[in-house]
Structures are given as structure tokens and as C-alpha cells.
């Protein structure tokens, strides 16, 4: 069998060659897929940790980077990541779809690693205080540019390298790396920085903290050099074998946006994404006002529990293909959890079990919200098929990021509105009860939207059902052992059956 050479432009999409052996047509799944997925996962983990690394260290960062002036270094770092993700989003979508996974991974890991080194240099105590903040933000811009790649890579990797019964879990593993990074960023500082100590512009602790994050960024950067190609020699599934879209990049964007069901999914994805992280951005001040001193632990627990439930949801989606049912269930669960925590936060902390209840409710928010990210992306690809995966998933992520800005603006304005509730004007959360009322209303709207209007057609699943009709179709799984030989398994039942394995030399 001869493979067509890959050109630079279509290296990410040309996978139409199907292997034939003994008259039987089939698809091959390569062990290399886990290496590619791992590089994307660790890239997402490292990047998310750098994004949220200073969220719980506002005073320490201001003391180190600003000295006696007021510069809000931690806040500006957070805003840089959000803004850059939106600005560079289209570029990441285009490069991933038209130049391939390999180029996208190289660019993402390089920007992430070298940007972390610039941030590390900014934390040297010997650097002039007047220059530190500019160096920090320069590095943060470079690190933030990596988001344009790893946020759209999961669906592309899942489509080209994974069989149809592993695509959802591949998406999930990539997406849960992001909240896992958030959890690390909120937990690790509590072990390094003492809350009662005096903050100094000469401390080495920030340098050591950034050094650890640079070390984490180095790992996916090294992994990417072991990736040899953007597409497997032989497709992993029927959809990747038949996937060819002759339309231009902007035509595909228009095709997605003109799909009513995809627009519904954009709204649901944005509500779940911005609804969770928007709440987590304001809840710390609310908890402090109500007598809770929980630091960043509610956010960390939310991310951890959400990661676990996402893996379970991914396994369920792979086995049943019930994408819309999972989204509906999670939307309703998130709305109910939001209403419960809204009501409970009206009461001051007065007993040992009050913090426990807050932890449980924050865990439920993560459990119902975070699974909607990877499953929502998978559903978006199904709905817009044969639009390129990075394009459809990129639109969802980009709209979610834009909605984050809208949510922040609504929350900031809502705090100042003197409606319904009395509050201290000089308190940080101000009219927080009205803000949470708006938040709950948006979540209830999302639940209603999912129940009444979410009813997409699974274009990719339908294609693969028709492709799997012939009885002679087989799936071959190729893995690489330590001796350098490839182990090949023939599977007659594409979903589950395994008959035999034999080792073939390369």
C-alpha cells in the first residue's frame, strides 16, 4: 500500500487511505495517539496553572511587582490570558485545521515554555522593580498565545487518531487537564506562601514558584519532539477516512454559525463555561463577607470533582453516544446546584458544618459544569460535520471566552445597582445577592434551553453507522512495545470484540 505524500496545507486532513489486507477493509489505531494526546494534556495543565497562578496571591504579587505603587499585577495577568485567548483564537483554529496537529503542538508548547521562562526572569529579586511588571506581562502574553492551539487540538486529535468509541474520552482527558491546572494553581501557593508573613519585593519564593511552573512547561515541550506526523498512515475511523471539506476557512465558520442547533450549543457551552468560572471569580469575596475563610479550596475542589465526573461522562458518551442527554442532565443539575448555593450563602458561617456544605455545593457545581466542556465540543463536531474539528470546537471555545467578558461586566455592574437588597457600599462584593440572582437566572435559562431546543443530528455517528454495515469491516489496533515491534489486533466487532493478536516486525 502506498501512502500519498502530505503537503503542508492538507497535512491535518488527508486521511482517506484505507488499508486492505486479504480483501478486508479496515481502520488502524496506533499507539502513538497517546503520546500526542499526552503532549496536549500536559500543555493544557501547565498553561492553566500559569493562568491562575497568582489568583490567590494578590497581595504578594502587588508587593513584589509594584512595590509601594498600585498596579494590580495579579488582576492584569488574569485579564491578559482572557484577552489574548480571544484575539488569537481564529489563528489557532486555522493553523490546526490547515497545517496540522504537529505544527500546532510545536507552536503551543514552544510559546508556553519560552513564555514561562520570561515570567521566571521577571521574578528575579535582582531585577529593577520598575521593569518586573513589564517583563511579567510580556511572558504572560506569550504563554496566553498557546491557548489558541491547545483549546482546539483535543477534537482534532480525537477525530484523526482515535476510533469512534474512544473519541469522547480523548476529548475529556484534554479538557480536564485545564481544571486540574486550576486546582494546582490554587493549592500549591498555600504550601509556599504563609498568609501571615510580611510581603517583600526581595523574596525568592516567587522565583521558586515560577521555576516549578517552568519545569512543568518543559515536559510537554520535550514530548512534542517525539511526535512524527500530524495524521496516522491509515485512518482510525470511517469519519476520518471520509473527512474532506473543500470549503474555505471562513466559509466553514459561516456554515457553523448558520446551523441553528450549533448556535444553541454555543449558548449552552458559554453559559456553563462562563457561569462556573465567573462565579468562582467572585465567590471568595462573598465567602469572606459571610464569615468563611476557605481561601482557594472551593475552586480547587470544584475543579477536581469536575475532572472526575468528566471522565465518567466521557466513558458514558463513548459507549452510548447520548451527547445531548448528558448536556441536558448537566445543565439541569448545574442550575439546581446554583439555586441551592445561592440560598445557602444568605446565612452567615455559624457552625462547623457550614463550610462542609459550601464545599459540597461547590463540588456539585464543578461536577455538573465541567463535563459540559468536552462533551459539548464533541457534540458540536457531530452537529457541524463535515466542518473541520478545530473550526467548530474553536468557535465554541471562543464564544465561551467572549461570554466570560460579558459575565464579568454584568457582575461588576450588578454589584453597584441599589435594587432589592441593602449592602455596604464600601464592601468588595457590594450588592452580591443581586449578582447571584442574575447568575441563577442565566443558569435556569440554560437548563430550559437544553430541554426545549437542543435536538441536533449526529452527522458523524450516522456516517460511521453506514460505514460499519459491511460484515467484512475490521479494526486493527497497532501498539509499539519496548522491542520496537508492532502488535496488531484484528477486531471483528468494531465496538468491543477482540479475537487475536500477533506481533509483526516494523
Automatic annotation (TrEMBL):
<feature type="transmembrane region" description="Helical">
    <location>
        <begin position="262"/>
        <end position="289"/>
    </location>
</feature>
<protein>
    <recommendedName>
        <fullName>Major facilitator superfamily (MFS) profile domain-containing protein</fullName>
    </recommendedName>
</protein>
<feature type="transmembrane region" description="Helical">
    <location>
        <begin position="296"/>
        <end position="314"/>
    </location>
</feature>
<keyword id="KW-0812">Transmembrane</keyword>
<dbReference type="InterPro" id="IPR011701">
    <property type="entry name" value="MFS"/>
</dbReference>
<dbReference type="GO" id="GO:0022857">
    <property type="term" value="F:transmembrane transporter activity"/>
</dbReference>
<feature type="transmembrane region" description="Helical">
    <location>
        <begin position="34"/>
        <end position="52"/>
    </location>
</feature>
<dbReference type="GO" id="GO:0016020">
    <property type="term" value="C:membrane"/>
</dbReference>
<feature type="transmembrane region" description="Helical">
    <location>
        <begin position="173"/>
        <end position="194"/>
    </location>
</feature>
<dbReference type="InterPro" id="IPR049680">
    <property type="entry name" value="FLVCR1-2_SLC49-like"/>
</dbReference>
<feature type="transmembrane region" description="Helical">
    <location>
        <begin position="352"/>
        <end position="370"/>
    </location>
</feature>
<feature type="transmembrane region" description="Helical">
    <location>
        <begin position="326"/>
        <end position="345"/>
    </location>
</feature>
<feature type="transmembrane region" description="Helical">
    <location>
        <begin position="432"/>
        <end position="454"/>
    </location>
</feature>
<dbReference type="Pfam" id="PF07690">
    <property type="entry name" value="MFS_1"/>
</dbReference>
<feature type="transmembrane region" description="Helical">
    <location>
        <begin position="390"/>
        <end position="411"/>
    </location>
</feature>
<feature type="transmembrane region" description="Helical">
    <location>
        <begin position="73"/>
        <end position="95"/>
    </location>
</feature>
<dbReference type="InterPro" id="IPR036259">
    <property type="entry name" value="MFS_trans_sf"/>
</dbReference>
<feature type="transmembrane region" description="Helical">
    <location>
        <begin position="101"/>
        <end position="122"/>
    </location>
</feature>
<feature type="transmembrane region" description="Helical">
    <location>
        <begin position="134"/>
        <end position="153"/>
    </location>
</feature>
<keyword id="KW-0472">Membrane</keyword>
<keyword id="KW-1133">Transmembrane helix</keyword>
<feature type="transmembrane region" description="Helical">
    <location>
        <begin position="206"/>
        <end position="228"/>
    </location>
</feature>
